[in-house]
Amino acid sequence: MYQDFFGLSAKPFQLTPDPNFFYASKEHKRAMAYLQYGLEQGEGFIVVSGAIGTGKSTIAKHLIADLNTQQVSAIQLVTTCLAPLDLLQLIASGFGIVTDNLLDKASLLQQIERFLNHNFDQGRRTLLLVDEAQNLPPESIEELRMLSNIQRDNQPLLQSFLLGQEELRDTLKGSNMEQFRQRIIASCHLPPLTEPECQQYIQHRLNHVGWQNNPSFEAASFALIHQTTRGIPRLINLFCDRLMLFCYLEENSHISCEDVDTVSQEFIQEQEYATLPPKAETVATQSLNHDNNDDAAVFRHHLEEVLQYLDKTMMEKLKLLKYLDKVLKDKNNQAKFANKT
């Protein structure tokens, strides 16, 4: 809606992960370096964790987009809570393996191993990226370890990268995960963006769609945006999209701190008082009286619900705004026609 008004070629702040908009912060560069290192090694597991909305899926898509498909056969799975057999069936389906509705595990494993050997004969490596891996039960993670045992000429035929929220790290610390931990060759955690990175992230996405300093930003506005979004890329996208829409409706080509404050109040109200806590220390203090892992899981669950609610509310508001925009244009056209006559 606002792209034409600001002279942009596309929406700069969409929620869907797009590798074309990949912003390499210090920690994102580190995560990408680990993934690329893992590809070069051709063995072991790489684990990337991070809070909701910190860019894990974008990193995965960016990696896959840069792969040479003649050399690497790769798929990205977004899992729910999958039992081992379900995981194997999903992997087979992702690689296009015809399983003929195989229900027994042994036959399914034979088909997967046949596919891996075929790729090896063709000079292709096979890569599996498992997103939202925190939802996998320990026995399914163990199944991935067993798949890594399939070898040819002392070379593993399948390599797996796991990306997930903080719960994934907790799962991998379990006493029954010792063998899996020994296969991890690198791991990293994605924190929220810092205040300078938040500004760079916003400008990076705007520049990607032809931004010519329209709208311009008051210098102090970036700090306010970071404060509201806590430096979480997905929330930055959601908030800045709302901010651009607000300025478009106000026919304003400059974003001031006052504009950010106005949109921030709407943003907070729409979270139905279920916003993030003001400071990380608040969560730490409250968690002293409870089990840390349980509190963290509950907090992340509430945050996911908030994000889903915001997405739904945003779409409803956009539909209304599009309708109002059409009505205003029709009235303007009628006024112009009346003036001519």
Strand content: 5-15%
Radius of gyration: 24 Å
Q: Order of SSEs, N→C? A: HHEHEHHEHEEEHHEHEHHEHHH
Q: What would you call the structural class?
A: alpha/beta
CATH topology (fold) name of the largest domain: Rossmann fold
Short description, anyone?
InterPro entries: AAA+_ATPase (IPR003593), AAA_22 (IPR049945), ExeA_AAA_ATPase_DNA-bind (IPR052026), P-loop_NTPase (IPR027417), XrtA-assoc_ATPase-like (IPR017466). With 341 residues, this protein is an alpha/beta fold.
What does this protein look like?
The protein contains 14 helices and nine strands. With about 350 residues, the protein is of the alpha/beta class. It folds into two domains: about 90 residues; about 160 residues, 3-Layer(aba) Sandwich (Rossmann fold). Strand 4 and strand 5 form a beta hairpin. About 5% of the residues have low confidence.
List keywords for this structure.
9 strands; 55% helix; alpha/beta; Rossmann fold; two-stranded antiparallel sheet; 341 residues; AAA+_ATPase; XrtA-assoc_ATPase-like
